[in-house]
């Protein structure tokens, strides 16, 4: 049988595919852009068209599949958008679904991840939720524009701290639980980096790595939201979700440090400085 990886070309999904391949698993890489998937994985995995909003794509994606990596696409802000696919999984003999959730959602009902977790559990599908802290790739990705163009970290997190984690480490965590479905059935794992940093410390590390003075400007929610919608042209629903997450960050929900990653993999997670050195080009 095979493992279906949704969002296979994304920051997390591509690492899930790579780590599953290292473990000898047969993988189905799912997404809406088949040429991109085939180019990314060089025909080493099965590529299949899949769209959460297109129920006609479910059967082919789930054919000969007994485990699933489930990731909510950023543009689908409502948990209900994933319910039809979860229902489709319920009808099949899925041994384990690993949902990419969010740190702290077991007690935080605001993000859509909370309801998605509950829906999977109530459907009776064996699960292994992976609850990471904020991705380091948020800084090398969506937030890199201001870093590169204005030497600013433009994030409304106040003075709060975050235990950032590398998506490469997330991918290994997901692959680990999917590779051993019986061992990790009906479990949840909160994975973090080795340290909690505020964004002043992030700016200092990036200054050191790039050789430029990078400053954390600490914008308010409204200024951040207006900039990302009006100036950056990002989807309003996506930006609203990020505002909610940074609100929870200010409440201290992203600062905890756990050893779950080590327990799962036997490895230490990457530090933010290690990540910044490896991915220096994204900040230049």
Describe it.
The chain is an alpha/beta fold. It has 13 helices and 11 strands. Strands 3-2-1-4-5 form a 5-stranded parallel beta sheet. Helix 1 (about 15-20) links the parallel strand 1 (about 1-5) and strand 2 (about 25-30). The longest helix has 15 residues, at about 235-250.
List strands and helices in order, with pairings.
Blueprint (H helix, E strand, L loop, with lengths): L1 E4 L7 H10 L4 E5 L2 H8 L4 E4 L8 H5 L2 E6 L12 H8 L5 E4 L12 H12 L4 E5 L4 H4 L3 H7 L1 E2 L7 E2 L4 H13 L7 E5 L5 E2 H12 L4 E2 L4 H11 L4 H15 L9 H6 L6 H7 L6
Parallel strand pairs: 1-2, 1-4, 2-3, 4-5, 6-9, 7-11
Antiparallel strand pairs: 8-10
Helix pairs in contact: 1-8, 4-5, 9-13, 10-11
**Uncertain ranges:** none
Label the structural class: alpha/beta
Mean pLDDT score: 94
Number of H/I helices: 13
Number of β-strand runs = 11
Strand content: 5-15%
What overall geometry do the principal axes of the alpha carbons give?
A: globular
SSE pattern = EHEHEHEHEHEHHEEHEEHEHHHH
Adjacency order of strands in the biggest sheet: 3-2-1-4-5
The helical percent reads 40-55%
**Amino-to-carboxy terminus distance:** 43 Å
């Amino acid at each position: 049988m095979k493992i279906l990886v949704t969002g296979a070309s994304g920051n997390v999904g591509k690492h899930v595919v790579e780590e599953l391949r290292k473990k000898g698993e047969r993988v189905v890489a799912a997404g809406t852009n088949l040429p991109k998937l085939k180019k990314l994985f060089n025909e080493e995995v099965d590529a299949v068209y899949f769209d959460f909003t297109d129920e006609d794509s479910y059967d082919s994606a789930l054919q000969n599949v007994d485990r699933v990596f489930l990731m909510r696409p950023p543009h689908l802000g409502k948990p209900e958008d994933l319910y039809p696919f979860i229902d489709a999984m319920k009808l099949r003999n899925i041994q384990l679904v690993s949902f990419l959730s969010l740190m702290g959602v077991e007690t935080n009902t605001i993000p859509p991840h909370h309801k998605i977790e509950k829906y999977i559990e109530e459907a009776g599908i064996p699960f292994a939720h992976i609850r990471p802290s904020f991705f380091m790739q948020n800084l090398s990705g969506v937030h890199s524009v201001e870093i590169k163009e204005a030497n600013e970290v433009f994030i409304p997190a106040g003075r709060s701290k975050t235990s950032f984690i590398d998506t490469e480490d997330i991918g290994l965590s997901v692959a680990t639980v999917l590779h051993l479905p019986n061992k990790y059935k009906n479990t949840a794992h909160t994975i973090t980096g080795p340290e909690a940093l505020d964004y002043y410390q992030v700016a200092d590390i990036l200054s050191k790595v790039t050789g430029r003075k990078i400053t954390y400007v600490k914008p308010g929610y409204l200024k951040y939201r207006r900039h990302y919608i009006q100036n950056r042209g990002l989807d309003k629903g996506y930006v609203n979700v990020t505002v909610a997450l940074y609100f929870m960050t200010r409440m201290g929900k992203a600062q905890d440090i756990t050893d779950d990653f080590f327990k799962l993999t036997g490895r230490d997670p990457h530090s933010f400085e290690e990540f910044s050195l490896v991915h220096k080009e994204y900040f230049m």
